[in-house]
């Protein structure tokens, strides 16, 4: 198992995602002899997990069963331990495309936070790219570095514990893309520029408040960035369900009987009048999971 | 870590390259071919002069459709210190504010004035420009630029640019797949280097190309295609390095049932070839060529079949105008357990059918029917 490479079987030392039911999942560090409590009972790693195929249905001690899934950055995003606010998959997907990330890309990121976006970046830039991620909170930086190791992506990433606004990314002229998720991104724009390749590249800043966006846009324009554009992406999850609709009864229709053909056709069906019809329909979300943040993108032009 | 390891040549435009032309928000994908006339935004020109220049360079279209480097001064001179009004209370749309007539403008064009100079003339001859607000003036210039500027920027293609291009130019060809939706699909299918991905794409090959870009030439992509030849026009526009082609396979879905039943015979010879052998030598040569082609085709089919036979694909992406449910149920059999898949449809109703079928069938978890909303924000800022 690795977050950048699939395997078929669960092994000692893997991180597996235990799927308990609708929207309910938990990450499990697989260890010989270890046990994990779930609401369906105990999972014994040596017998229930190690050596089994990812995707297997596993019965727990209380008789309930769970599915054990191969980790992906998307499953990690919904199960990871929160140490900060995190970026979710809808924004991450947009960021990945708009920053033009692909295998081989060199990316700078700050702050690392809980590493939700970092894992998705690493998945996309592997096996030849590199992520330079900067986090000013020491414990968070240490913790995320530990997770990268457990997830077997540590060879693709350098974690730096410093303040990006003061000290930059610790690299110059190497990045194809820069991502900023910090309280005052405008203070890091010049560092972003310095970190990027002279041939140019893409930058993205994530901010919840429009005032932050405005100041960041000013800084980007000031530093010569082009194609500055701010967007927001929201996800709507449609609930599919069977609905049942009552059928109105207008009473028997005497005019229908004037045509012998029609009378013949309706005769067998008309015996017991169906009072409801069932059909599949979707219900839009009652309220869209709210605003996360604005995504501001820009292009750094070639500089000599 | 300095920039020295970078290979300059990958940033230079070469003959034969697939590139994207850009003006404002308009894109067009073309190939650089010698002396080939290209029509973009009602103007024609030749791309020969672009060869050797760096990507993202902006050119001016000179007389005879010859591209010339745009002078940097031109690009920046538009926003000189200017006087502006506070609001539009004194601006009346009486159609008389512009002193230049259409004929005057045509004459300026004939005199060989550049777009920038024409716009300056329009501003100088507008009685209301000075009374417009700063925002309004910018908007005016932007509008006129679109009409009179004759510049074109040449970009290296990318999934982002091509997805936006198709959405803007030919949405029907890509089944109205928006770029924000494509972004969700690539991420939710966990497309990454080194995996084995099945793609059913009748969106001009845009989705297939996007998947290939994310795989970076590592792993394998099997295009499952309906009838005839697979559609790959969009893939060409990505301008992938030659070795990417080795990772791309094709398999016609009409052979899927035979493959699953184990009755697909990829060693079969076309009976026609043996008949041609008795003909004249001239024909014999043609028959040979035909035979070689068929042999190649057979080998390719066998290679794709071998990839599918393990039924251990890592990802499945479906984006087409076909009824998605049978496509999904047919191709899902090739996916390894615990692997994601994504189905796109322009319409919600066929996906409700898919969702219901998956729930009935069992064997999947985390099935969701979603769409995204994308909004652009106009952010006002002063320099």
The strand count of chain B comes to: 13
Radius of gyration of chain A: 27 Å
Number of strands of chain A: 14
Q: Regions of chain A with pLDDT < 50 over 5+ consecutive residues?
A: none
Radius of gyration of chain B: 27 Å
How do the strands line up in the largest sheet of chain B? 2-1-7-5-6
**Approximate shape of chain B:** elongated
Please give the CATH architecture of the largest domain in chain B.
3-Layer(aba) Sandwich
Regarding CATH, which class of the largest domain in chain B?
A: Alpha Beta
Number of helices of chain B: 13
Helix fraction bin of chain A: 25-40%
Could you give the distance between the termini of chain A? 43 Å
Integer average pLDDT of chain B: 87
Strand content of chain B: 15-25%
Q: Which protein chains make the most extensive interface, counting residues with beta carbons within 8 Å of the other chain's beta carbons? A: A-B, 69 and 60 residues
Query: In DSSP terms, counting alpha (H) and pi (I) runs of 4 or more, how many helices of chain A?
Result: 9
CATH T-level fold name of the largest domain in chain A: Rossmann fold
CATH architecture of the largest domain in chain A: 3-Layer(aba) Sandwich
Work out the oligomeric state of the chains in this entry. heterodimer
Q: What is the CA-CA span between the terminal residues of chain B?
A: 33 Å
Largest sheet of chain A, in brief, is:
8 strands, mixed
Main location (chain A): nucleus
Binding site for S-adenosyl-L-methionine (chain A): 114-117, 135, 163, 181
Family (chain A): Belongs to the class I-like SAM-binding methyltransferase superfamily. TRM61 family.
Region (Disordered) (chain A): 246-304
């Amino acid at each position: 198992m690795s977050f950048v490479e699939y395997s078929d079987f669960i092994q000692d030392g893997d991180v597996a995602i235990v799927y308990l039911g609708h929207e309910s999942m938990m990450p499990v560090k697989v260890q010989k002899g270890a046990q994990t409590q779930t609401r369906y009972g105990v999972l014994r790693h040596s017998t229930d997990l190690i050596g089994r195929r990812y995707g297997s249905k596993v019965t727990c001690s209380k008789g309930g069963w769970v599915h054990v899934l191969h980790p992906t950055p998307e499953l990690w995003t919904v199960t990871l331990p929160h140490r900060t606010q995190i970026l979710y998959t809808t924004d991450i997907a947009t960021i990945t495309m708009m920053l033009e990330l692909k295998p081989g890309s060199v990316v700078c990121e700050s702050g690392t936070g809980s590493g939700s976006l970092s894992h998705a970046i690493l998945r996309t830039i592997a096996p030849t790219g590199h992520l330079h991620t900067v986090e000013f909170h020491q414990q968070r930086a240490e913790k995320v570095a530990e997770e990268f190791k457990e997830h077997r992506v540590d060879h693709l990433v350098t974690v730096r514990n410093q303040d990006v606004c003061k000290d930059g990314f610790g690299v110059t002229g190497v990045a194809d893309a820069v991502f900023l998720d910090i309280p005052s991104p405008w203070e890091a724009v010049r560092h972003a520029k310095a970190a990027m390749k002279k041939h140019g590249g893409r930058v993205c800043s994530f901010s919840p408040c429009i005032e932050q966006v405005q100041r960041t846009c000013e800084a980007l324009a000031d530093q010569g960035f082009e194609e500055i554009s701010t967007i927001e992406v929201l996800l709507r999850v449609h609930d599919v369900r069977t609905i049942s609709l009552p059928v109105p009864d207008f009473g028997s229709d005497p005019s229908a009987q004037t045509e012998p053909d029609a009378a013949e056709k309706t005769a067998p069906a008309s015996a017991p009048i169906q009072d409801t019809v069932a059909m599949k329909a979707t219900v839009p979300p009652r309220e869209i999971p709210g605003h996360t943040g604005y995504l501001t993108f820009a292009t750094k032009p070639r500089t000599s | 870590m300095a920039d020295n390891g970078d290979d300059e040549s990958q940033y230079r435009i070469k003959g034969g390259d697939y590139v994207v032309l850009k003006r404002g928000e308009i894109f067009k994908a073309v190939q650089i071919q010698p002396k080939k006339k290209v029509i973009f935004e009602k103007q024609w020109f030749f791309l020969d002069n672009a060869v050797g220049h760096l990507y993202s360079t902006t050119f001016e279209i000179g007389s005879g459709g010859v591209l010339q480097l745009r002078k940097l001064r031109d690009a920046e001179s538009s926003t000189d210190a200017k006087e502006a009004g506070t609001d539009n209370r004194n601006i009346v749309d009486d159609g008389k504010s512009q002193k230049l007539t259409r004929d005057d403008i045509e004459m300026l064009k004939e005199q060989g004035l550049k777009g920038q100079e024409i716009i300056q003339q329009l501003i100088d001859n507008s009685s209301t420009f000075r009374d417009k607000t700063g925002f309004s003036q910018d908007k005016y210039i932007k509008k006129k630029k679109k009409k009179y500027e004759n510049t074109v920027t040449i970009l290296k293609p990318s999934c982002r640019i091509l997805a936006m291009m198709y959405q803007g130019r030919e949405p029907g060809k890509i089944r109205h797949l928006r770029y924000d939706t494509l972004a969700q699909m690539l991420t939710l299918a966990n497309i990454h280097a080194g995996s084995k991905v099945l793609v059913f794409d009748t969106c001009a090959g845009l989705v297939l190309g996007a998947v290939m870009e994310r795989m970076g030439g590592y792993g394998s992509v099997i295009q499952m295609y309906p009838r005839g030849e697979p559609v790959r026009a969009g893939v060409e526009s990505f301008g992938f390095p030659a070795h990417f082609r080795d990772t791309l396979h094709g398999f016609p879905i009409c052979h899927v049932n035979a493959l699953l039943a184990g009755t697909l015979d990829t060693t079969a010879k076309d009976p026609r070839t043996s008949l041609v052998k008795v003909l004249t030598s001239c024909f014999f040569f043609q028959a040979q060529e035909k035979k070689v082609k068929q042999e190649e085709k057979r080998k390719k089919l066998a290679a794709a079949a071998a990839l599918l036979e393990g039924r251990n694909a890592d990802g499945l992406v479906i984006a087409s105008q076909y009824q998605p449910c049978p496509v999904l149920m047919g191709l899902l059999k090739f996916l390894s357990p615990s692997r994601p898949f994504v189905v796109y449809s322009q319409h919600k109703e066929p996906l409700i059918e898919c969702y219901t079928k998956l729930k009935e069938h069992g064997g999947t978890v985390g099935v969701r029917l979603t769409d995204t909303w994308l909004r652009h924000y106009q952010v006002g800022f002063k320099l």
